[in-house]
Amino acid sequence: MLFASGFHQPQWLFSEVRRLLGDKPLFGGSCCGIITPAGVDYGGFEALLLLFDSPCDSLCLPQQDQQGLLNWIGNDHALCFFDLLGSPVRDLFDSARHQQLQGAALLGDFGLRTSFMFCGDKVANDCLLAIKLPAPTTMAVSHGAIPISDPLTITAGQGGLVQSLDGQPALDCLLALLGQDEAKLRGSLLHQLSLGQPWNNTYSSHMIAKLDSQSRSLHLGTGQFETGQKVVLMSRSVDSTWQDTRMQLAAFGKDKPSFYINCAGRTAAFSGALQEESELVRQYLGREMAGIFSGAELASLNGQPRLMNWTGVLMQWS
To answer: Which residue ranges does the record assign to the FIST C-domain domain (predicted)?
Structure first.
């Protein structure tokens, strides 16, 4: 697997790595940064190469062929990657019931400008990529947001659009909960907020990507939202991120093969944290770990896949 920041010329990098490896297939794509035993790096010309001692079954399809990907995966465990700037895949994970999927929406930079996919023997965009691997022996999801409201009922909404909450226009409900005016909400405050959906014993976080002043609705970056569903308003929390990560790490061993998919929004540069949360993970896991920073994170708990924001997905094999 090969991952690289969006500052690289992807075709050149892909061709050179394949030349050096003897034309072996490469799978992966763009990332906002990398996490290795040597450190946490982002914002430059980072690249991460992971080598396996035996071939893995893999499939690359157009991003619109979502059902084809799920049919191919079947009951196997797979790492799934897709192009964040490509065709929407919101429906894919809603229909993936009882399938074990972990993965990420790939993105090459914090400014949402670049993305690319490495699909075996070619560089592409707008693709779905799946790699069948043994299911991790240990897997955990850490969350970077906490609930700040009581449960709310979606009284009108579908897909990534929430039109009303508790019978009020969704934007007006949000402003009332926060005690803020719309101008202030459209500033840096909006980037701290998400809607949370119940997921096992916690909530999955789905960032509020856009406000619509005319319809008074909310547009969500990830997640499937339907009328009648219960949600909570959530806010990013650096302290909660660290606490959750520390708690999750206790179940993992040191110096065992591990892969960490971490939200780019959890980096210190983006979140304002004084320290990198990924440093905690890197130092704890030791020399057999690797990871990337992504645009959105995919994880499955109890056969329920969910695409989320501000999340860390840690997998280990032993």
So the answer is: 170-301
Q: Per this entry, what is the length of the chain?
A: 318
DSSP 177: H
Give the end of a domain, one of 182, 213, 236.
236
Residue 49 phi, psi dihedral angles, 5° rounding: -120, 125
Look up the domain containing 201 and give its range. 145-236
195 and 291, same structural domain? no
Q: Specify whether 118 is located in the same domain as 248.
A: yes
Mean pLDDT in consecutive groups of 10 residues from the start of the chain, 318 residues: 98 98 95 98 97 92 90 93 91 71 96 96 97 95 96 96 98 95 86 93 93 96 94 95 95 98 95 93 97 96 87 97
| Count of helix runs (H) and strand runs (E) in the chain | 8, 26
Residue-level pLDDT at 34: 99
DSSP state of 85: T
Indicate the residue among 236, 266, 292 that finishes a domain: 236
Give the count of beta carbons closer than 10 Å to the beta carbon of residue 166. 14
Domain count, the chain: 2
